[in-house]
Amino acid sequence: MPHAFSNPGAQPARMLFLVSPAGYETYLQEVTDLRNAPGHPDHAEITALRLRHDIRQLTPLTATTTDRGSTTAPAHSGART
């Protein structure tokens, strides 16, 4: 099911994410680790991670600037097949 998450505000946001069956939390932690690594994210590693978890990323995995001028984390829009 395609979906998206974003934070258009200037302040960091927290989200409670509940998924069943379990396992998706592993993908979220691994993609967070890759994005928080020094330097630019390795897109080949992110692609391999998505394949391991059967996820198709529908939107770019990049930060965006809001119309308020603040930088936000990327919207996550993915679909499990």
Broad structural category: alpha+beta
Rounded radius of gyration (Å): 13 Å
The secondary-structure element order is: HHEEEE
Mind summarizing the main beta sheet? 2 strands, antiparallel
Average of per-residue pLDDT values: 76
Write the layout of secondary structure elements.
Blueprint: H1 24-36, H2 43-52, E1 55-57, E2 64-65, E3 71-72, E4 78-80
Antiparallel strand pairs: 1-4, 2-3
Give me some keywords for this one.
81 residues, alpha+beta, two-stranded antiparallel ribbon, 28% helix
In short:
By secondary structure, the chain is of the alpha+beta class. It contains two helices and four strands, in the order H-H-E-E-E-E.
Structure, explained:
This protein is an alpha+beta fold. It has one domain. Helix content is 28%, strand content 12%. The chain contains two helices and four strands; from the N terminus they run H-H-E-E-E-E. It has helices spanning 24-36, 43-52, and strands spanning 55-57, 64-65, 71-72, 78-80. The strands form two sheets. Strands 1-4 form a two-stranded antiparallel sheet. A two-stranded antiparallel sheet has the order 2-3. The longest helix is centred in the middle third of the chain and has 13 residues, at 24-36.
